[in-house]
Request: fold
Amino acid sequence: MSDPTSVTLNIGDKAVSLPVHRGSLGAPCIDIGKLAKESGHFTYDPGFMATASCRSAVTYIDGDEGVLLYRGYPIEQLAKQSSFLEVAYLLMHGELPTRTQFDAFEHEVTHHTMMHEALKTFLGGFRHDAHPMAMLCGMVGSLSAFYHDTLNLDDPEQRRLAAVRLIAKVPTIAAACYRQSIGWPIRYPRNNLEYTTRFLHMMFEVPSEPLQLKPVAAKALDLLFILHADHEQNASTSTVRLVGSTGANPYACVAAGIAALWGPAHGGANEAVLKMLEEIGRPEDVAKAVEKAKDKNSGFRLMGFGHRVYKNYDPRAAIIREMCHKVLAELGVNDPLLEVAMRLEEAALKDEYFVARKLYPNVDFYSGLIYKALGIPTEMFTVMFALARTAGWVSHWLEQQVDPEAKIGRPRQIYTGATPRDYVPFDKR
Ligand code: CMC
Reply:
């Protein structure tokens, strides 16, 4: 019985027929939407290990084969031939742009990069030592206060404009958060520069002297942005969709995505990887770290290793690994942590514990070393991830807004609390 169009679930003496859906690629999905109504049973799947939450045409991952496609295009081809802004267009619109479409998109993004001056006051309210992810989350959320009244979610043009604004403004806000944290004046976006170079200028240019950038810096950053741009229904994207399902405005949705990304099990791993490599410190101490990661009582995991979906080498990690060597060489950076990282990867890939669990380096394993070589401080690593992932978040949000099957996200639970009991007044407790 291959390719069934439905399956039957027997619950006691009741047989419930459940349709099976197939996408253009990937595993078939059993539609349990009517199960509760027909059988009185819910399904239980903590962490969504086997549950598809929506139909999506944005990104496809085959975790066993190590395949990642944006709108059908292999990540390796996009990494080699495309640019982040073109990828953002592709994710949002579904097709690669013509030259005219790309020029119009680039022009529009470029002319929406300014942030409202009042946001500077807001930024100034943070303590100087606030984590930039905390600032980014608050600042992006506050965009809803600036654009809420002019946003009609039923109007496709207004939805598109909100998505463009987010792609345009998040780099400006991200750089402003960094400069606030080190006490530098905010640098306004320069429209004569392209997206990634403009961001580096907003980050590092000081009023007193021009910034000298090696072309490899913008190239490497652009590549990292492409690789981080989307990854189907990960925790932060699912958060954006969950918040989006309530009809909240897109700035609030993306702020929620930023909050979800911050955790060390998700986007915060790039920061954690660098801290881990610094703690290990020397290639000779790699073996000890591997042993510690295998010891469940140690509470230590190899950061940048393992993935919920990839049970093979993360294709993004392979590309970043190669870029890492190139960037460090071209920038003339001799970072001893690269040697620690390579030894760690080699040791883990040979170790039975990691082999048996199919734990491979993920996108975050080498990205921090590149960011470090570019002069981006560790606390900003997850902000970089958020900046790039904004392209994916808005694309999913746009897709969700026109999904005829979309409903408010509302999971059920297995209740394990007290059964009904009577209230006891204070003097009787
Ligand atoms: N180091 C040591 N052991 C690990 C690791 C690790 N990094 N990752 C998973 N394991 C073990 C885990 O202890 C478990 O062992 P056992 O079967 O004996 O109980 C087994 O592998 C399966 O792990 P899991 O936690 O059930 O797997 P998951 O799919 O729930 O978690 C993960 C995936 C990414 C959260 C996890 O691998 C992890 O914590 N990795 C380190 C953090 C990290 O690098 N996160 C970035 C993810 S990629 C970027 C992104 O998309 O955000």
About this structure: The chain is about 50% helix and 5% strand. The first strand starts at residue 6 and ends at 11.
